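User: Is it possible to get a 3D structure for a protein together with its bound compound? The compound here is benzoic acid. I've pasted both below.
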Amino acid sequence: MIVGRKVPSVTFRTRIRDEAVGGPNPYRWQDMTSADYFAGKRVILFSLPGAFTPTCSTYQLPDFEKLAGEFKAQGIDAIYCISVNDAFVMNAWGKSQNLENVKLIPDGSGEFTRKMGMLVAKDNLGFGMRSWRYAAIINDGAVEQWFEEEGYSDNCDSDPYGVSSPQNILEALKSEKLAA
Ligand code: BEZ
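Assistant: Yes, that's possible. Here is the predicted structure of the complex:
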């Protein structure tokens, strides 16, 4: 993704709790657009190969959650985690992680990820099409900084993780502030 480029305009099918629905499972569909998430805000978006996978669940997502206050101090309004998983899976993952700060975005059909140029095959793991791991600082819908793991490829044997870690992005934000 080229710095300065606008993120794609897509509609995400989310599920939100609504007591008015009643019954034992009071959730309903809520369409959210790229504009809803990105317009008028400076945010971090990070994208990973799958909900509940080990690196994502043990390091990347919980570390973004823990460091949310530090990101806020650096002028970040929101932190979003996106994955090619449906809203039911993403909600279950969020619940299991007790998230308060990071918002999960379900890209179940992979449309956003494909239009970002980050969709890769993970058939070697029985996953189908998923996201290559990356993160970005997105300012009012435009990519301000891009953090992509090395080795973008289909059916990659390894799952590189470092460049898109919250620690690395925080470091970049802090050094940018010092240089300003
Ligand atoms: C992981 O996050 O550890 C992981 C991601 C994709 C496939 C397998 C593991």
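The chain is about 30% helix and 30% strand. The first strand starts at residue 11 and ends at 17.
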